[in-house]
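[job 4471] stage=fold_predict status=RUNNING
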Amino acid sequence: MNQIHGSATIKVNGENKICDVAAKLKIGGTVNDVEMVGHKAHRSERTIASEVEVQIPMTAETDLIKEQTTVDVEIQFQSDTGAVYVVPSAAQTGELETGNLVTLTFMGDPAKKA
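[job 4471] inference complete, writing structure tokens
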């Protein structure tokens, strides 16, 4: 799926925790798969998770272990075009990529337009 660029606000226990103005969103939801069997195309549907990528500054106070194990967050995403999406019940997935910035990738239920 295509990524949507915009700003993301991540809420943990109802409190705004992370804000990133250069975030990326893959909305998830129902996608179509097409497979050719002989000369005929067969379509099937499947549901995939949404994905939000944000970056935070790496500082002495950044707890990488805590960031890597973050679960049950709500993400509000505003695209560059002004559309607002909500990703409920998201969790940080995979190993963190670090440098001057730490890349966090959250996956959750398919995004809903707010």
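[job 4471] summary: Residues 13 and 73 are 7 Å apart (CA to CA).
[job 4471] exit 0
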